[in-house]
Design goal:
This protein is an alpha+beta fold. The chain contains nine helices and twelve strands. Among the domains are: 30 residues; 194 residues, Nucleotidyltransferase, domain 5 (2-Layer Sandwich). It is globular, with a radius of gyration of 22 Å. It comes from Alkaliphilus pronyensis.
Length: 322
C-alpha cells in the first residue's frame, strides 16, 4: 500500500507539473506579439468637457460593486485597429453589452502630433493592445478594461467558417475594388439575404464605400454606417454561436486570436454564459458626433452621454423617492 501511494503521489506530481507547464506555455504564447512602446499619456485640451466629481463617484460606486468582466475586441488591419468594440459581460444575469468605438474617435496623446495619430485606431500601432486597454478605459471614464482580444482578417475568416458562416441581409449593392491592396481586394455583393463564409464575411465587415463610378452604394453616414452594418453582423454571429456549445466555440476561437485572458478563465466565463439569450445582448455606439479639428474630421465622443450609457449598462436605477 505504501509503495502504491508513493507511485501515485509521484505520478500525480509529474502530471500536475506537465499540465501546468502546457497551460503556462499556451497562455504565454496567446499574448499579442505587438507590444508597442511607452505609456499612453492623453492630452488635456483647453475647454475640454469634464464631469463633476460627484458624477464620477456615482459611476465608480456601481462599477466597483459589479461583477462584470470587460474586454476590448480589436479587429486588426496591420498595425491599425480597423474594428474596436468594448464588450462587458455580467455573469450574474447572463447579459452582454457592447459599445462600438468609431476608429476616428478623437484621442490626442502627448508626443503623437500627426493628423492620423489623433485618431483612436492609431493607439494599437504605438502602444500595443495593453495601451489600447488604457486608452479605452480613459475614454470610458475609467471603467476597467480587464482583457484584450485581437483578431486578424485571417483569424476572423477561420472563426466565421467554424460556425458555418453568418446570415446577413444586405440592403444595397456593395461594389468596391482596391488593386493596390495585398492581395488585391474586390468586394461585390448583390442586395438580398446571404450566408457569408469567412472570406466574404471579412469583406462585408471591411466595406465602407463604393468604388467611384461603380453602381455600388456607399454608407450615407460614412464610418458610422459601417459600424451599424458590423453590429448587425455581430448580432447574427452571436445568435448563430449561441446555437453551439459555447465553451467549445471559445476553445476553437482561441486558435485564431491573441489575448491576455488565460484559457482557464475563458472556459469559466464561457461556462457562465451558457443559457445566454439574444434579448440579453445589447449593442451600442459610443455617443458623440463627427466634428472637424482643423481640416481633419474626427468623431468626438460626448462625455455626459457616455456616462449615461455606462450607468444604464451597469444597471443604475435613479432614486425617484427624492
Amino acid at each position: 500500500m505504501k509503495v502504491f501511494l508513493k507511485v501515485f503521489i509521484i505520478a500525480f506530481i509529474c502530471f500536475f507539473l506537465i499540465f501546468n507547464g502546457l497551460v503556462w506555455g499556451f497562455n504565454y504564447y496567446m499574448k499579442d506579439n505587438h507590444v508597442g512602446s511607452g505609456t499612453v499619456v492623453p492630452v488635456i485640451e483647453e475647454g475640454q468637457e469634464n464631469l463633476e466629481p460627484d458624477e464620477i463617484d456615482e459611476l465608480m460606486k456601481i462599477v466597483n460593486e459589479s461583477s462584470r468582466i470587460n474586454f476590448v475586441l480589436l479587429g486588426l488591419e496591420g498595425l491599425r485597429s480597423d474594428t474596436i468594440m468594448f464588450v462587458s459581460f455580467d455573469p450574474d444575469i447572463k447579459k452582454i453589452d457592447l459599445i462600438s468605438i468609431p476608429r476616428d474617435t478623437y484621442y490626442p496623446r502627448a508626443g503623437y502630433n500627426g493628423i492620423g495619430k489623433k485618431k483612436f485606431n492609431s493607439v494599437y500601432g504605438d502602444h500595443g493592445a495593453i495601451g489600447v486597454k488604457t486608452a479605452l478605459s480613459d475614454i470610458l471614464l475609467d471603467i476597467p478594461v480587464d482583457y484584450y482580444v485581437t483578431v486578424t482578417y485571417s483569424g476572423a475568416e477561420s472563426i466565421i467558417n467554424s460556425i458555418g458562416g453568418v446570415p446577413v441581409y444586405i440592403s444595397h449593392l456593395m461594389d468596391y475594388e482596391d488593386p493596390y491592396d495585398d492581395p488585391p481586394l474586390k468586394i461585390y455583393f448583390e442586395p438580398g439575404h446571404h450566408v457569408l463564409n469567412g472570406e466574404d464575411g471579412v469583406k462585408f465587415l471591411r466595406y465602407r464605400q463604393a468604388t467611384p463610378g461603380s453602381e455600388g452604394v456607399s454608407y450615407a453616414d460614412g464610418d458610422l454606417g459601417r459600424i451599424k452594418a458590423q453590429q448587425e453582423f455581430m448580432k447574427s454571429a452571436i445568435k448563430k454561436t449561441l446555437s453551439f456549445r459555447l465553451p467549445s466555440v471559445v476553445t476553437t476561437a482561441f486558435k485564431f486570436v491573441r489575448t491576455d485572458i488565460n484559457l482557464q478563465d475563458a472556459v469559466v466565463y464561457a461556462t457562465k454564459a451558457i443559457g445566454l439569450e439574444m434579448e440579453n445582448v445589447s449593442i451600442n455606439v459610443l455617443p458623440g458626433e463627427p466634428k472637424y479639428h482643423g481640416r481633419t474630421s474626427y468623431f468626438v465622443h460626448d462625455i455626459e452621454e457616455t456616462r449615461n450609457l455606462l450607468l444604464k449598462i451597469y444597471g443604475y436605477e435613479e432614486d425617484t423617492d427624492n
